Amino acid sequence: MMRPWRRAAMQEQNSNAVLNITSLMDVMTIILIFLLFSFSSQDQNIRLAKDMDLPRSTSEKPFKWAINITLTENELRVEDLSVCRYKNGRFVDVRNDPDKIVLLYKQLLELKSMEKYRQVDRDAAEPVVIFQADKKHKFNTIYKVMKTAAMAGYPNFRFAVLKN
Predict the structure, then answer these.
(1) Residue 91: which of 105, 77, 80, 101 has the closest Cα?
(2) Nearest 5°: phi and psi at 136?
(3) Could you give all domains of the chain from N- to C-terminal order, each with its CATH number?
(4) Phi and psi for 69 in degrees, rounded to 5?
(5) What is the pLDDT of residues 94-136, one digit of tens each?
(6) CB 126 within 8 A of CB 97
(7) What angle do CA 140, 145, 147 make, to 5 degrees?
(8) Which backbone phi and psi does 95 adopt, to 5 degrees?
(9) For 13-46, what is each residue's pLDDT tens digit?
């Protein structure tokens, strides 16, 4: 005579097993969502001037949208609008002010007032400027642009570089 617990074990072996995959699908969905968020691309497309050669970088910080200031070999631009010409290490067509580039300052103040009017939502607590400058420019030139932007209310900078 078979014992009752052996009989139950024999009956379980002969019956068809049912697999519940609901919890497995939940786990796989969570893993998929995690991978999508962790491997999302951080590269951003910004338009470069034709006559610009950016420096290279190995930085891993993510890119965030910001106001774009571009200093090429021939001109200074803000958001693709020409502010003034640049020739032989000097800004042309600007009033001589030792502290700032007056036309750039006015253009940035105008952008600042538009941000307040439109209540533009930036990713940072303070507005950020992406600065594209040819790697041949001298520090004094870059410093003057940065100083002018800071005076206009944009003290935070990110430099556009080519990723290695």
Answers:
(1) 101
(2) -85, -15
(3) 4-38 (no CATH), 56-163 (3.30.420)
(4) -115, 130
(5) 777 778 888 888 888 888 887 654 554 555 456 788 888 888 8
(6) no
(7) 90
(8) -65, 145
(9) 666 667 778 888 888 898 988 887 766 555 556 6
